[in-house]
Write a structure and sequence with these properties.
The complex is a heterodimer of chains A (about 140) and B (about 230). By secondary structure, chain A is mostly helical. Chain A is built from six helices and two strands; from the N terminus they run αααααββα. Chain A folds into two domains: about 30 residues; about 110 residues, Orthogonal Bundle (Arc Repressor Mutant, subunit A), CATH 1.10.10.10. In chain A, α4 packs across α5. Chain B is an alpha/beta fold. The longest helix of chain B has 16 residues. The chains are: A mainly alpha (about 140), B alpha/beta (about 230).
Chain lengths: ~140, ~230
C-alpha cells in the first residue's frame, strides 16, 4: 500500500472516530413541542404572573389554562409551590371563590401588579434582545 | 448542627450529630409532640445557620399549623417554607394524585429557588400512604428514600404509630409492611410514659447511623419558648 493511501485511510478513520465522538456527545435533538415545553418550564414564573395580572384563578384551573394555551402539562407540585412562594412575597393573594370554600383563587395584589408589569417589561426587553441577535446572525448567512 | 437546635438535644449524643443528607424517621403516638419537635428544631436551626428549610404538611393547613406552633411559643422563620397539600387535594376533587411525583416536584422547585435549602420534613408518612392510590407505595419507599438522599437534604419523615413498640419486628413479613424502619438512617421516637403519679413525655434516639448516641429516654418539656429536653426519665 502506498503511503498516500495509508495517509488517506488514516485520515478517514480519524474522521470516523470524530463523527463517533460527535454522535456520542451531541444532546438529543429537541422537537418544537419539547422546545416549547422547556421554554415554558424555565420561564414559568413570568408566564404565571402575566396570567395572574389579568385573571383570578385557582391552582388547578391554572394548570388547565396553561395546558390549553401552550399544550404543556405542569405538575401540581411545581405550580402550587410557585403560587405559595408568590403569595409569601406579597405579589399575589388568595381568596376563596364565592360559595365555594374548597377553592382558593389567586390574583395579583395592587403592589404585585406594579411588580408584575416591571418584570414583564424586563423579560420582554431581554427576550427581544436575544431574539434580535439570533435573527441578525441568521441574516449574515 | 441539629444537636444544638433544641435545648438539651446535645445530651442525647455522645458523639456526632444527625448526619447531613440522611433520612430520619420521627415516630410516636398521637400527642407525643412529633410535629412540634421537628418544627421547633427547624426554626432554631434556621436562626443559627441561615439555611432554608421546607416543611410539607399533609395533615393540616398552613394557617392551622402556624396557629398551633405559636400556641407552643414556636415562631416560624421566613426561611422556613411550608407547603400544605390541602388546596391541591380539595381542588383536584376525585382525581388521583401521584403523591410521590407531586412531593418530588415540590422539593425540586424549592431547591431550585433557594440555593441553601438543606432540610425537609414530611408530616406525615401515614397521610402520604393514605393519599397515594393504585400503587403499593410501601414497597416503593426504597426509591423514595434514595431520591431524598440524592437531593442532598436532611429529611425528617413523621410517622404516627399505634404503639410505641411498633418498631419491634416479630417476623420478616413486618419488614415488608414497614420498610421505612430499616430504610431510615435514623429513628427518633417520641412518646408518653404514664405512671400512677404523673404523665411524662419523652424522646429517645432508637437509631442514628454515623453517630454515637444515648439509648435512654429523656424527658421533653414545653415552655413559653418552645421545647426543651431534660435528663433521663428514670
Amino acid at each position: 500500500m502506498s503511503s498516500s493511501v495509508i495517509e488517506r485511510l488514516d485520515r478517514e478513520s480519524k474522521n470516523i472516530e470524530n463523527v463517533k465522538i460527535v454522535l456520542e456527545i451531541e444532546p438529543p435533538k429537541l422537537n418544537s413541542h419539547q422546545l416549547k415545553e422547556n421554554i415554558i418550564k424555565s420561564h414559568l414564573e413570568i408566564i404565571v404572573l402575566s396570567m395572574l395580572a389579568e385573571i383570578s384563578i385557582s391552582g388547578y384551573d391554572l394548570i388547565k389554562e396553561i395546558f390549553a394555551r401552550y399544550n404543556v402539562f405542569l405538575s401540581q407540585g411545581t405550580v402550587y409551590s410557585l403560587l405559595y412562594c408568590l403569595k409569601d412575597e406579597g405579589i399575589i393573594r388568595a381568596e376563596f371563590a364565592k360559595g365555594d370554600m374548597r377553592t382558593k383563587r389567586y390574583s395579583a395584589t395592587q403592589e404585585g401588579k406594579q411588580i408584575i408589569e416591571k418584570r414583564i417589561d424586563e423579560f420582554i426587553e431581554a427576550e427581544e434582545y436575544i431574539l434580535n441577535s439570533i435573527k441578525n446572525r441568521r441574516s449574515i448567512f | 448542627m441539629f444537636r444544638n437546635s433544641i435545648t438539651g438535644l446535645d445530651g442525647l449524643f455522645k458523639d456526632g450529630d444527625i448526619p447531613k443528607g440522611s433520612v430520619i424517621l420521627v415516630t410516636g403516638i398521637e400527642g407525643a409532640l412529633k410535629t412540634s419537635f421537628i418544627f421547633n428544631m427547624f426554626s432554631n436551626h434556621i436562626a443559627d445557620t441561615g439555611e432554608h428549610g421546607l416543611y410539607a404538611s399533609l395533615e393540616e393547613t398552613k394557617e392551622s399549623h402556624l396557629r398551633n406552633m405559636e400556641s407552643l411559643g414556636i415562631r416560624k422563620s421566613d426561611l422556613l417554607h411550608i407547603f400544605d397539600y390541602e388546596d391541591m387535594r380539595s381542588e383536584s376533587k376525585n382525581e388521583e394524585l401521584d403523591i410521590v411525583k407531586v412531593t418530588e416536584d415540590m422539593i425540586d422547585f424549592y431547591r431550585e429557588k433557594y440555593d441553601n435549602l438543606t432540610f425537609f420534613a414530611l408530616d406525615s408518612l401515614n397521610a402520604f400512604y393514605s393519599i397515594s392510590t393504585g400503587v403499593n407505595l410501601r414497597k416503593n419507599m426504597y426509591h423514595f428514600f434514595t431520591r431524598l438522599r440524592d437531593k442532598d437534604l436532611t429529611s425528617f419523615l413523621i410517622l404516627e404509630t399505634c404503639s410505641p413498640d411498633k418498631y419491634v419486628f416479630v417476623s420478616s413479613a413486618d419488614h415488608v409492611e414497614h420498610p421505612e424502619y430499616f430504610l431510615a438512617d435514623g429513628i427518633i421516637e417520641l412518646g408518653v410514659i404514664e405512671t400512677r403519679e404523673n404523665v411524662k413525655r419523652y424522646i429517645q434516639i432508637r437509631k442514628m447511623r454515623g453517630a454515637n448516641h444515648s439509648m435512654e429516654k429523656h424527658q421533653i418539656m414545653v415552655g413559653k419558648d418552645g421545647i426543651s429536653i431534660l435528663g433521663s426519665v428514670y
